[in-house]
Amino acid sequence: MGQEFCQSCGMPLTDTNKGTNSDGSLNNEYCSYCYQKGQFTQDFNMSQMIEFCAQFTDQINKETGWNLTPEQAKENMRQFFPTLKRWKEKDERTLTEKATDLLAQCKDITIASIDDEGFPRPVPMSKISSKGCNEVWLATAANSVKVTDFKLNNKAGLCYSNYGDSVGLRGIIEIITDDNIRKEMWQDWLINHFPYGHTDPNFVLLHFIGKEATFWINGEFAHEKL
């Protein structure tokens, strides 16, 4: 019998690295890194899995005696992965649905305001909450440069990405000071920035609403109005 490979990441399968089914028995198709207790451990599409696996190119070279660069490893995976069971099954979701899942995976995003000289000012921020693929809530200080920018011009850009897939959005910002919404969106770690909690007068929320999107997901590119 020939060598068996994980039908998700392509790793050679042995009895010591097989995944498990929901009843605890060994799964003969997927490795333990990809599949445990009857479920995939990562909510990846194929291109994300390739980006993830390419991190381990040095380890792959060491174990196989190959001398691949990360780009060469990715190209090999692009040829091999479509033959694996997990990726043979066509993903019938729309780009918007895929982008919604992508945003849910992301803890951090980048948002850009327009300053008083007309230049974009991009900054990375932690996501507080999201809805669909184009609505994001962020926490910031009322006296921040971002808030000053958005009071003058509420147009904004926002992008998010994970393992090679990305979405860029153009839209508008609402500055939220409503006490009920601030209480609803409050997270414990914010106390490090706003010592008076959700009632802190310097605590505001930015609600981004995307109107246009540029998608690059699993090798598919599109520009759409939302």
Automatic annotation (TrEMBL):
Residues 111-218 form the General stress protein FMN-binding split barrel domain. Residues 5-88 form the Putative zinc ribbon domain. InterPro entries: Split_barrel_FMN-bd (IPR012349), Stress-Dev_Protein (IPR052917), YdaG_split_barrel_FMN-bd (IPR038725), Zn_ribbon_dom_put (IPR025868). Coiled coil: none annotated. This is General stress protein FMN-binding split barrel domain-containing protein.
